[in-house]
Design a protein that fits this description.
The structure holds 2 protein chains of 2 kinds. By secondary structure, chain A is of the alpha/beta class. In chain A, β5 and β6 form a beta hairpin. Chain B is of the alpha/beta class. Chain B has 2 domains: about 35 residues; about 180 residues, Rossmann fold. Chain B is about 30% helix and about 20% strand. Chain B is built from 6 helices and 12 strands. Chain B has a 6-stranded parallel sheet with strand order 1-12-7-4-2-3, sandwiched between helices. In chain B, strands 8-5-6-9 form a 4-stranded mixed sheet. Chain B has a two-stranded antiparallel sheet with strand order 10-11. In chain B, β10 and β11 form a beta hairpin. The longest helix of chain B has 20 residues. The radius of gyration of chain B is 22 Å and the shape is globular. The N and C termini of chain B lie far apart (about 60 Å). The chains are: A alpha/beta, B alpha/beta. Chains A and B meet through α2, α3, α4, β1 and α8 of A and α1, α5, α6, β9 and β10 of B. β9 of chain A pairs antiparallel with β9 of chain B.
């Protein structure tokens, strides 16, 4: 099945699923309340957004110098930095590290980049044990499915479903209380941290000035992942840089506010190296892998370059009427929602993924929600334009050509009107069926009846 | 050596693609398509203090704000007028939770706090057994700053007994002095830069409340992987 037909069939299934709709609505309603409260606590959220956008602009438009500074600082403190142009290279670098270290078990904290390169699957195929430590990621890993949302991976599940899952997979689920279920995961994970050979993390920000990688999390799982195993591996997109250490004073509270309606995420931790002389714990080795994976192609498109400003807060997903109805899995992409619809055509091919840019009401809620002011809904339009320019749809072009001829010639126009009047009653007989030429539109919509008297006739009769 | 060659060339390839891409300038945000000609003289985020949540001018206001924020985060904050009061309060917590052993690190305040309890102490400074730390009832550490704006604390691998002490035991106790309160996040970053640059500790962590998750139906649960309780004792 092509990506577009898969999207369409899943979308029509999910939009009819009332249970799904109510779970998502409940989850996002509580988010909206706290997010608005936190935004209101800012003295000026708008000025903060503008400054954040300008800071990311500066970072992305001088990406080469910032990356060089970041890497030389990281290396000067003993960190091993690797560069990967694509997923296969990144997977190979990570596998090689694990083989060198004779590692068996890997504890992972949440990283969307690892979803992007399908890391777990590759490592498991090689015989490594991979455990996701973020609770939501752990839950979807047990279900053998990708995260539903980039920030809230298991938001599509109810506590009852999670209880049944834990009962089946872990044989331990005392009740369906979120508290007790969380404690089950805590118990399972504790020993895994201590026994793991390698800790794997993503990164939220990379500071060019000081050579640090900042990780944002609520659970403490990334803190433990970066503290206990002897080897630490961090995979991060090249676009994550910020110029200065002090920029975090703005970005950390903004990420927390836009992403989850928190004043600050519970743990914001900056790592600048493996265990240093005089320190009592931490990994002996730290490997940082910088991933391109076609981000440089997005960079080359100056019009849409600002989509690399994305800090993956998920705010645009949360407000998107399409996301809220079709759900996260329907997209079939690592990054879903408006930002996913914008960047996926660049990362995975315009013709295969242009349908995501069409699945939009262009309401602009995403652009308004974005803390770094990415012009998301205009980029959706640009993707549509680029897609039809590079591969015009034959029938669409033909239809517009015919329309132009008819609309330019009054005689043709009035003939078309007459045909419309005459065939109108037939339309209601075939509406939405295979015989209806406008089926794609009329399947779920009514065609307004064509009035017997047109405006032109009405005007003429009045004179 | 072949491997090294590949790594270097991948770096050069990626940087090459970046430089090629950046030959065309992108419009500045909010400029409606106007192409930028020069970068800002000062950093765009340098006025962050004026946009972030306000903190009040006096230290009394800032302590009140810290207390309010800490309470919202479900952290326990207690302010004392003397060390002795602090150690009495610590003993009370220890008795209530029936601690039998604690983890801590070498430091003026942390030594004073753990000595006042008279319990077996696992010190992290010279290395430690992780399984042993896992069995401790509480981790007692110092910190680099308390932040009024967030109700959180800043710890580092150098000032707070390493990376695990503040996350592995189920209860994290922070011992701080009043002077360690800073008004806001920009002040906390300035303080860290002044104190450590360029030789930063390998880990700097902004801890804002006890460990938490909302991954099950977005309902808040404390103690997901890190400590279930965070107590800040300040004098």
């Amino acid at each position: 099945m092509s990506f577009v037909s898969q999207f369409k069939s899943l979308a029509s299934e999910k939009t009819r699923d009332l249970r799904h709709r109510s779970v998502i609505r409940t989850a996002l309603r509580s988010y909206e309340v706290v997010r608005d409260k936190r935004k209101a606590a800012f003295q000026s959220w708008e000025s903060a957004r503008q400054a954040a956008a300008e800071t990311k602009w500066e970072a992305i438009n001088h990406l080469d110098t910032h990356l060089e500074s970041l890497v030389s600082k990281l290396e000067s403190r003993g960190t091993k930095v690797h560069w990967a142009s694509n997923s296969a290279q990144a997977r190979e670098i990570i596998s090689q590290i694990l083989r060198d270290k004779k590692a068996r078990s890997i504890i992972k904290s949440k990283a969307m980049t690892s979803e992007e390169i399908h890391l777990n699957h590759a490592l498991e195929k090689e015989g490594f044990t991979v455990v996701e430590s973020d609770l939501g990621e752990f839950i979807v890993q047990l279900r053998h499915e990708p995260p539903y949302h980039i920030v809230f991976p298991s938001m599509h599940l109810t506590r009852g479903e999670i209880k049944d899952l834990f009962q089946k997979e872990l044989g331990d689920a005392p009740s369906d209380s979120p508290e007790e279920l969380t404690m089950v995961a805590r118990r399972v994970m504790r020993q895994k941290y201590i026994q793991a050979d390698v800790g794997f993390t993503g990164g939220n920000f990379a500071i060019a000035e000081t050579g640090m990688i900042s990780i944002t999390e609520n659970e403490g799982n990334a803190r433990l992942t970066a503290a206990l195993p002897k080897t630490m591996v961090t995979l991060m997109g090249i676009e994550k840089v910020l110029p200065r250490f002090s920029d975090l004073a703005l970005f950390l509270p903004m990420l927390a506010t836009a992403g989850a309606g928190q004043p600050m995420t519970c743990y914001n931790t900056m790592y600048s190296g493996p265990r240093q002389p005089g320190e009592c714990d931490g990994p002996e080795e730290w490997h940082v892998i910088l991933l391109d994976n076609r981000r440089t192609e997005l960079l080359a498109d100056a019009e849409q370059r600002d989509s690399l400003h994305c800090i993956r807060c998920g705010a645009c997903l949360n407000v998107c009427p399409i996301f809220r109805n079709v759900g996260g899995h329907t997209y079939g992409t690592t990054y879903s929602g408006p930002v996913g619809a914008v960047i996926t055509p660049h990362l995975r091919g315009l013709q295969d993924w242009k349908h995501l840019s069409n699945a939009s009401s262009l309401c602009g809620a995403c652009t308004e929600a974005c803390p770094v002011k990415i012009d998301l809904h205009h980029h959706l339009l640009q993707n549509r334009r680029n897609a039809s320019a590079s591969e015009p749809a034959f029938f669409e072009k033909l239809a517009y050509k015919i329309f132009a001829i008819v609309a330019n010639e009054p005689a043709f126009w009035s003939l078309a009107k007459k045909i419309g009047w005459l065939t109108q009653p037939l339309q209601s007989l075939v509406k939405g069926s295979a015989l209806d030429p406008a089926k794609a539109w009329t399947k779920t919509r009514d065609l307004p009846p064509q009035p017997l008297e047109s405006f032109k006739d009405w005007w003429k009769n009045r004179q | 050596m072949k491997n090294t060659g590949n790594i270097l060339s991948e770096r050069e390839k990626i940087l090459g693609r970046i430089r090629e891409a950046l030959k065309i300038s992108a419009p500045l945000p909010g400029s409606h398509g106007e192409v930028a000609t020069h970068a800002h003289a000062e950093s765009p985020a340098s006025h962050a203090r004026e946009w972030l949540p306000s903190v009040g001018a006096s230290s009394v206001e800032q302590f009140d704000l810290f207390a309010k924020n800490a309470a919202d985060l479900k952290a326990d904050f207690q302010l004392f007028s003397s060390r002795d009061e602090l150690s009495a309060a610590l003993k009370k917590i220890s008795a209530a939770e029936k601690w039998s052993r604690i983890a801590s690190h070498d430091g003026e305040l942390s030594n004073f706090a753990s000595a006042s309890l008279g319990l077996p102490v696992l010190l992290t400074d010279k290395g430690y057994d992780v399984q042993e730390m896992e069995k401790c009832d509480a981790g007692i550490s110092e910190c680099d700053a308390l932040i009024a704006q967030t109700g959180g604390v800043v710890v580092t691998s150098r000032s707070a007994g390493g990376r695990a002490l503040s996350v592995l035991p189920p209860h994290h106790i922070v011992i701080a002095r009043r002077e360690q309160l800073v008004p806001d996040l920009p002040a906390a970053f300035a303080l860290l830069q002044q104190k450590y640059a360029p030789d930063f500790p390998s880990m700097i962590s902004f801890i804002t409340g006890p460990s938490r998750t909302g991954d099950i139906e977005r309902i808040l649960v404390l103690g997901a992987h890190g400590p279930k309780k965070l107590t800040v004792l300040c004098f």
